């Protein structure tokens, strides 16, 4: 049997995510062990493809990296070859179409296939590269867990673990001081991190983009807890949580969101509103980049290994234009196009939302 | 709408497991919040039911326990009411049928339903209680992840995390000293812990009950690694790993297993064999009870919450004779009978076994 | 031998700190085991003493709490009995002298001695209580490690561990994206947390209150790292880090500090300055309350146990007016007065500062 | 000012220990940054010196390793150049004096000074090398914390942290099942790990080499706990814990210790004795190599950095024949001879032993 790909490129695009190195390792080892193929690592995502920064990955280089956060290949956000920022004169940036360079480098390096690990943006570029004749295989990456084609993505379990540990920590202070603690977590459009992290941390209030909230139920929950047996409240709020449209605070938030240098996010805003609305001392903590970094959990290491091996199989066997995905515990290839259509958001009647309500969690909608 | 159960008992049977408290909490809160029901906690499994040791669980008692290992209710192995050990005279134990006492206590405490959280043994007793007229709801618990009725059980992810962290630790010593490190993990009949923990820890050799191994491939892997670029090897072996039938070592192992005071398990035996067979310094570590204890991971907290809420719904709504289960990400009730038929073992062609082989892991069979 | 104290009160004042429960446990067990004394737990610091909220602590209540963060007694910041906030009418707060109530409750509850666990403020009140005739024993508590009477306080090692873990996490993202990451840590007047946490995390720049910094060396370090072999930089900045007096930014920071609702702290400010000054993408993370919460480290558990036992000995044996302290690894009582004189700050020529400079860390002063 | 050493060798000897990489990093960076010196890394301890396996350490190679366990240089136990094992014919090993090779390699590589990081054995060899004319600087390394010249060594805090986390885990199982749990920790001659780990984990019984124990007090403690409020007991036992001389069990233990393949250590023996002596179910766990591996704690990273920087200063400035040490929080050089005289053991009246007794811990001696 002959295989389609003897030389396979691999790159990581977009924000970093625990598990990227696990994918790179599995792609490389599988390609080498099962197919005798050569794997070329491309630096800093599509940026490295345009600029020709790439190198052969040795067995040694990918050994021992499964448990390391980040990506040994580096990543970049400026990588769209069709819209590439170029400094045309001192300080003046112009966006140009440098896709010809990316394609030329694919040819120069003799890449029979290219594995692109990334989110939305990366998959869109992958589609376009495919149309331009490059044999692409996608590996979905989104810490928010909102890629539609797959049930779950690596990095998500690690992010949720960071959230849960943070809530555990904040709860001891909250309980000692009878305070309200607000923790702002990632999730601009999909609330999976807030939902899972909040349920695991035993948050009393969880605010998601998918379930618009009002202040009254939130204040009510705070009052109920502070006055009764417990005297502290934990609020877990997704970046993208929102009040119903038409509310003035939505407008204020929208304004802030467009300001790249905004100093206080939704966490600070919710904390202020609760303190003013209930009279109880309230503090906000923003987890931010802590959610992206560090060693991946077991689940993420296992998923990254499964994804990487599957992607190498697709690449080596000539199954192109697909993204590997996990569905009902099985890893399989799906068309890239399917993967990039929309977002997988939390259904308001999701069984975990229901379970959380049953144990007393308030989602701010009633 | 009237509900079937106003008073719901809950007990935990068998070995402990991270997440038990999460289930107790979710059962109690859901029963109280959604149905206004009363929950009676039974101490030390069916032992407490026989002996009448039980108490009403307050909201406060189940608050803040989601992240705590162990079980606030206690557990016991001597709990089968139909075969109950009784000290009939100084030091002489006799097994008696005390099921009438268990049934009498169900009546005395007015239990409309009884939620039993446990493994195999507990589910068998639950079936028998059901036949005797008690309204039972089961929640599966097995750290080995081998209950057939459900895709996954709580405690498993935590156990695997302990294994992975241990391998991470042992790998640094192995690599500094160019040694072989053998780590023995739980799994007498099913190798899920060894498989997942080994893949996540990047073990070079994984030995499972489901894939009988020979020494040659294991020695070969050790030689390959020690002589080439890396100079250390990590071997992850399940308690129940075994050589092909007929092998003398199987006989030796079988003999040891029947000896309750045996001093060295399979880990020590594999370490000795590797040291003698390859000449490389080898050390064994037995994780034992470390795998059962401590704070549950996020995945286990979430699953425990989902299971507990679902069990309370079944109990309160009169859906008896069922065990809650997770299938393809959905939590639903299945007949208890189905749950106790056999064991869910690792299929030798499981996709994770295949992925592990692709990244170079040896399972000792070839 | 007869002891001075049969009934010993204990309270925790000020911000919470990992290890408080360890002290409460050791005070209680030592008083009970070694002296047969009774220990009365006072709720929410001096607030509970004024309001008479206290209860006898049982052996059971203090069992198993050594590893738990927070304080089972609760704490409060409004506790000075001589300046006690009282709501005199709807919403109008007036500060009154309610010290007579605190003293009356000491008498009513028959407290022969009172162990006060807290920082600066608590020790000042303890001094005043001592003058008013109450037999006081102090236990120093300050997460910033700046109490002058003792070499080290519990909670500090835990806080530093949180900082180091956060830097480990942020470093993976920084390195993947070639970014500058600024992490703001506690330390308004003393930079011990930033120093220890920064050294342990391998921070490239550490900014302390004790060593005023200028922008040039900081920008220089960033340039050096981004242009050479590494392409990321970690900056660890204490809340109280500052530019030389006279600098405009000092004025701006001073203004912000007085604003209780200020949205961006020094971390955000430093990040903005670096991004503007060097052109490299920079992100800030504020650890805030994460540093106070959660399970204490081994060092903090051991120190808390030692402090608590020592305080109980002092209380029971009639050694009053002292605070327990750790000096050169020995735990001993020192006069409270000594403990509250000034602050223990980082000497700019501290050997760890020197070691950090040797491994290449920039403190922004040269 | 001219410095004594332009080329500095560094090696790690003996068992591995978290923090070794931190020392290597600090030696290298300090030598490079402060003295413009070159650092030569020697592989696998004195073995690499004899065999000439060494390489220049680059800045890049020592970057980012502060938080990694193990040693990038490798270690070895066969390293004494004066008693070097040589395979003289197939399988026949002979011990030879190859010190001339080690000295020749010092000369060939132009090493002006040699930093040896290791324990007892390494310091003895260092002394001998010094006598042979090599400029030696020692860095003490012993996970047991028993080097006499220094108050504390790196690796110890990490080991104790592993012990404490293990006890935390085991306690949940012990408490759920009303069991006795025995945990065997390192410490053949000095009981620091058992003492600190036991106190931090809240162990009920701690058995040290320095305090011979009898069975009666141990059984008594178990009975007291099982019968009263708590129903579980945690026993922390050092490898070298022992019964009074003359006891038969001592003889049995001594016999086992001389058997290199002994299957059960002191932990298993203590567990059996307790189960037989009290009738309570008892389980043993042996932590073994888990205590040596993994990421160093903050305290160990800071200490390693301080030791490494100090050793580089000594080497570069020509202060030879010394070992760096920590005394009362200050890092300073002491004569190597002083460091290797005897062992720093736990004084039976150590203040932490006293504090542990006060909180109810049994040391088995009364």
In brief:
4 copies of one chain form a homotetramer. Chain A is α/β, with parallel strands linked by helices.
Question: Kindly state the mean pLDDT of chain A as a whole number?
Answer: 92
Strand content of chain A: 15-25%
The tally of structural domains of chain A comes to 2
Please tell me what the overall shape of chain A is. Answer: elongated
Number of strand elements of chain A: 13
Low-confidence stretches of chain A: 258-263
CA-based gyration radius of chain A: 22 Å
Give the number of helices of chain A. 12
CATH architecture of the largest domain in chain A: 3-Layer(aba) Sandwich
Order of helices and strands of chain A: EHEHEEEHEHEHEHEHEHHEHEEHH
Widest sheet, order of strands of chain A: 3-2-1-6-7-12-13
Given the helix and strand composition of chain A, which structural class is it?
A: alpha/beta
Quick one: biggest sheet of chain A? 7 strands, mixed
What separation lies between the terminal Cα atoms of chain A?
Answer: 62 Å
Oligomer: homotetramer
Q: For the record, what CATH class of the largest domain in chain A applies?
A: Alpha Beta
The third-level CATH topology of the largest domain in chain A is Rossmann fold
